[in-house]
Design brief:
The chain is α+β, with helices and mostly antiparallel strands. The chain contains four helices and six strands. The chain has a domain at about 145-199: Nucleotide Exchange Factor Grpe, Chain A, domain 2 (Roll). The protein has helices at about 1-50, 50-90, 95-115, 120-140; strands at about 145, 160-165, 175-180, 185, 190, 195-199. Mean pLDDT is about 80; it is low at about 1-10 and about 25-40. Keywords: Chaperone, Cytoplasm, Stress response.
Protein backbone atom coordinates (compact mmCIF):
# COMPACT_ATOMS: atom_id res chain seq x y z
CA UNK A 1 0.00 0.00 0.00
CA UNK A 2 2.75 2.31 0.90
CA UNK A 3 4.50 1.65 -2.37
CA UNK A 4 1.31 2.37 -4.25
CA UNK A 5 0.91 5.77 -2.53
CA UNK A 6 4.55 6.70 -3.23
CA UNK A 7 4.02 5.78 -6.86
CA UNK A 8 0.90 7.97 -7.09
CA UNK A 9 2.75 10.89 -5.47
CA UNK A 10 5.63 10.50 -7.93
CA UNK A 11 3.20 10.41 -10.84
CA UNK A 12 1.42 13.54 -9.57
CA UNK A 13 4.73 15.35 -9.14
CA UNK A 14 5.75 14.46 -12.68
CA UNK A 15 2.37 15.63 -13.98
CA UNK A 16 2.71 18.93 -12.13
CA UNK A 17 6.26 19.39 -13.46
CA UNK A 18 5.09 18.67 -17.01
CA UNK A 19 2.23 21.17 -16.68
CA UNK A 20 4.60 23.80 -15.27
CA UNK A 21 7.13 23.15 -18.05
CA UNK A 22 4.41 23.48 -20.68
CA UNK A 23 3.19 26.72 -19.13
CA UNK A 24 6.72 28.11 -18.96
CA UNK A 25 7.34 27.04 -22.53
CA UNK A 26 4.11 28.73 -23.69
CA UNK A 27 4.88 31.88 -21.74
CA UNK A 28 8.38 31.97 -23.27
CA UNK A 29 6.90 31.71 -26.74
CA UNK A 30 4.43 34.49 -25.94
CA UNK A 31 7.12 36.68 -24.43
CA UNK A 32 9.55 36.20 -27.34
CA UNK A 33 7.28 37.84 -29.95
CA UNK A 34 6.64 40.70 -27.52
CA UNK A 35 10.38 41.20 -27.12
CA UNK A 36 10.86 41.01 -30.89
CA UNK A 37 8.02 43.49 -31.49
CA UNK A 38 9.57 45.91 -28.98
CA UNK A 39 12.96 45.69 -30.75
CA UNK A 40 11.28 46.28 -34.14
CA UNK A 41 9.37 49.30 -32.82
CA UNK A 42 12.63 50.72 -31.44
CA UNK A 43 14.34 50.30 -34.82
CA UNK A 44 11.37 51.87 -36.68
CA UNK A 45 11.32 54.78 -34.25
CA UNK A 46 15.01 55.44 -34.93
CA UNK A 47 14.49 55.25 -38.73
CA UNK A 48 11.38 57.43 -38.66
CA UNK A 49 13.00 60.21 -36.64
CA UNK A 50 16.41 61.10 -38.18
CA UNK A 51 18.81 63.08 -36.10
CA UNK A 52 19.60 66.76 -36.69
CA UNK A 53 23.03 65.81 -38.07
CA UNK A 54 21.44 63.49 -40.66
CA UNK A 55 18.99 66.24 -41.66
CA UNK A 56 21.83 68.72 -42.13
CA UNK A 57 23.82 66.21 -44.19
CA UNK A 58 20.77 65.60 -46.39
CA UNK A 59 20.18 69.33 -46.87
CA UNK A 60 23.86 69.86 -47.69
CA UNK A 61 23.77 67.08 -50.27
CA UNK A 62 20.65 68.58 -51.89
CA UNK A 63 22.19 72.08 -51.94
CA UNK A 64 25.41 70.71 -53.45
CA UNK A 65 23.42 68.87 -56.13
CA UNK A 66 21.47 72.04 -57.00
CA UNK A 67 24.71 74.04 -57.18
CA UNK A 68 26.35 71.52 -59.52
CA UNK A 69 23.29 71.47 -61.79
CA UNK A 70 23.12 75.27 -61.86
CA UNK A 71 26.84 75.56 -62.61
CA UNK A 72 26.53 73.04 -65.47
CA UNK A 73 23.54 74.94 -66.92
CA UNK A 74 25.41 78.26 -66.71
CA UNK A 75 28.50 76.76 -68.35
CA UNK A 76 26.37 75.40 -71.21
CA UNK A 77 24.68 78.80 -71.59
CA UNK A 78 28.07 80.58 -71.69
CA UNK A 79 29.45 78.24 -74.34
CA UNK A 80 26.28 78.53 -76.44
CA UNK A 81 26.38 82.35 -76.21
CA UNK A 82 30.06 82.49 -77.29
CA UNK A 83 29.29 80.24 -80.25
CA UNK A 84 26.27 82.36 -81.27
CA UNK A 85 28.35 85.55 -81.06
CA UNK A 86 31.06 84.08 -83.26
CA UNK A 87 28.47 83.01 -85.83
CA UNK A 88 26.82 86.45 -85.68
CA UNK A 89 30.19 88.16 -86.26
CA UNK A 90 30.82 86.05 -89.34
CA UNK A 91 27.47 86.98 -90.89
CA UNK A 92 26.78 90.42 -89.35
CA UNK A 93 27.18 92.28 -92.69
CA UNK A 94 25.33 89.67 -94.71
CA UNK A 95 22.17 91.72 -95.35
CA UNK A 96 24.18 94.73 -96.57
CA UNK A 97 26.34 92.59 -98.86
CA UNK A 98 23.28 90.83 -100.30
CA UNK A 99 21.70 94.26 -100.97
CA UNK A 100 24.90 95.42 -102.74
CA UNK A 101 25.19 92.42 -105.06
CA UNK A 102 22.91 93.99 -107.74
CA UNK A 103 25.20 97.05 -107.78
CA UNK A 104 28.18 94.76 -108.34
CA UNK A 105 26.30 93.13 -111.22
CA UNK A 106 25.62 96.61 -112.71
CA UNK A 107 29.34 97.47 -112.54
CA UNK A 108 30.22 94.27 -114.40
CA UNK A 109 27.65 95.07 -117.11
CA UNK A 110 29.00 98.64 -117.35
CA UNK A 111 32.53 97.28 -117.81
CA UNK A 112 31.41 95.06 -120.68
CA UNK A 113 29.52 98.00 -122.22
CA UNK A 114 32.62 100.24 -121.96
CA UNK A 115 34.64 97.75 -124.02
CA UNK A 116 32.22 98.22 -126.94
CA UNK A 117 31.34 101.89 -126.34
CA UNK A 118 32.28 104.48 -128.92
CA UNK A 119 30.80 107.46 -127.08
CA UNK A 120 31.52 108.66 -123.55
CA UNK A 121 28.08 110.14 -122.76
CA UNK A 122 26.18 106.80 -122.43
CA UNK A 123 28.98 105.42 -120.24
CA UNK A 124 28.80 108.44 -117.91
CA UNK A 125 25.02 108.11 -117.66
CA UNK A 126 25.38 104.41 -116.81
CA UNK A 127 27.94 105.13 -114.07
CA UNK A 128 25.68 107.87 -112.66
CA UNK A 129 22.74 105.43 -112.54
CA UNK A 130 24.86 102.84 -110.71
CA UNK A 131 26.07 105.47 -108.22
CA UNK A 132 22.49 106.58 -107.49
CA UNK A 133 21.43 102.95 -107.04
CA UNK A 134 24.30 102.40 -104.59
CA UNK A 135 23.40 105.53 -102.61
CA UNK A 136 19.74 104.48 -102.41
CA UNK A 137 20.61 101.00 -101.10
CA UNK A 138 23.00 102.41 -98.49
CA UNK A 139 20.44 105.09 -97.56
CA UNK A 140 17.89 102.34 -96.85
CA UNK A 141 20.43 100.80 -94.44
CA UNK A 142 20.67 104.12 -92.53
CA UNK A 143 23.71 105.71 -94.24
CA UNK A 144 23.58 109.50 -94.79
CA UNK A 145 26.03 111.97 -96.31
CA UNK A 146 27.03 114.98 -94.25
CA UNK A 147 26.54 118.41 -95.71
CA UNK A 148 29.64 120.34 -94.68
CA UNK A 149 30.42 123.18 -97.14
CA UNK A 150 29.20 126.52 -95.83
CA UNK A 151 28.52 125.16 -92.33
CA UNK A 152 30.46 126.18 -89.21
CA UNK A 153 33.37 123.92 -88.37
CA UNK A 154 32.32 121.29 -85.80
CA UNK A 155 35.02 119.08 -84.27
CA UNK A 156 32.36 116.40 -83.59
CA UNK A 157 31.65 116.11 -87.33
CA UNK A 158 34.67 117.49 -89.17
CA UNK A 159 38.39 116.90 -89.38
CA UNK A 160 40.29 120.03 -90.47
CA UNK A 161 42.96 119.31 -93.06
CA UNK A 162 44.12 122.90 -93.41
CA UNK A 163 43.10 126.55 -93.00
CA UNK A 164 42.90 129.08 -95.81
CA UNK A 165 42.23 132.83 -95.66
CA UNK A 166 38.49 133.47 -95.82
CA UNK A 167 37.44 135.77 -98.69
CA UNK A 168 34.84 137.43 -96.43
CA UNK A 169 34.46 137.79 -92.69
CA UNK A 170 31.25 135.77 -92.59
CA UNK A 171 33.16 132.65 -93.89
CA UNK A 172 35.70 132.71 -91.08
CA UNK A 173 35.48 129.52 -89.02
CA UNK A 174 33.30 127.87 -91.67
CA UNK A 175 34.00 124.97 -94.01
CA UNK A 176 35.31 126.32 -97.33
CA UNK A 177 35.93 123.03 -99.12
CA UNK A 178 35.44 119.30 -98.58
CA UNK A 179 38.25 116.89 -99.39
CA UNK A 180 36.42 113.74 -98.26
CA UNK A 181 32.74 113.35 -97.47
CA UNK A 182 31.61 112.46 -93.97
CA UNK A 183 28.92 109.87 -93.26
CA UNK A 184 26.54 108.96 -90.45
CA UNK A 185 24.94 105.58 -89.88
CA UNK A 186 21.62 105.83 -88.03
CA UNK A 187 22.61 109.34 -86.86
CA UNK A 188 25.98 108.16 -85.52
CA UNK A 189 29.18 109.44 -87.15
CA UNK A 190 31.06 106.60 -88.83
CA UNK A 191 33.45 108.83 -90.83
CA UNK A 192 34.45 112.42 -90.18
CA UNK A 193 34.41 114.82 -93.11
CA UNK A 194 37.88 116.03 -94.08
CA UNK A 195 37.49 119.74 -94.70
CA UNK A 196 39.28 123.03 -95.39
CA UNK A 197 38.35 125.76 -92.92
CA UNK A 198 38.33 129.54 -93.53
CA UNK A 199 40.57 131.55 -91.25
Amino acid sequence: MLKKKKKENTDNTENINEVNNEQLHDEGQEQAPVAEATATETQQGTAAAPTAEEKLKDELAQANDKYLRLYAEFDNFRRRTIKEREEARKTEGKDVIVALLPVLDDFERAQRAMDKATEVTPVKEGVTLIQNKLKNILGQKGLKEMTSIGNAFDADLHEAITNIPAPTDDLKGKVMDEMEKGYTLNDKVIRFAKVVVGA
